[in-house]
Amino acid sequence: MSGCLLTCTVLTLWIGRIPLWVSAIIAVGRGAGQLALVSLLLGVALTQSWAGIVLLAVMLTTAIITATGRLREFPGALLSIAILSGMTVTLGIVFGTGAFDFSIR
């Protein structure tokens, strides 16, 4: 399906004489590579408890950096507390209700 969409995109750009068809191909290739990397990381994180903790820390750090960069009018510490609070409540509900086991299978 994605190959069909890429073909339609490239053809549309080429017919319209818009010189961005190479960028479309590069973007799809980069996206496929990123998805492959994320799937590998998740595969490791779901089988190794240490990797799951590292992945959560990386995701938390990324969320804080992204939010701090986009919401400049709020202090970074306040955003960090808000994100940590939301994460704590969510994980508490998920693991507290037994929706997910707190162990690696």
UniProtKB/TrEMBL annotation:
InterPro entries: UPF0014_fam. Keywords: Membrane, Transmembrane, Transmembrane helix. Pfam families: UPF0014 (PF03649). The chain crosses the membrane at residues 40-65, 77-100. This is Uncharacterized protein. It comes from Cryobacterium arcticum.
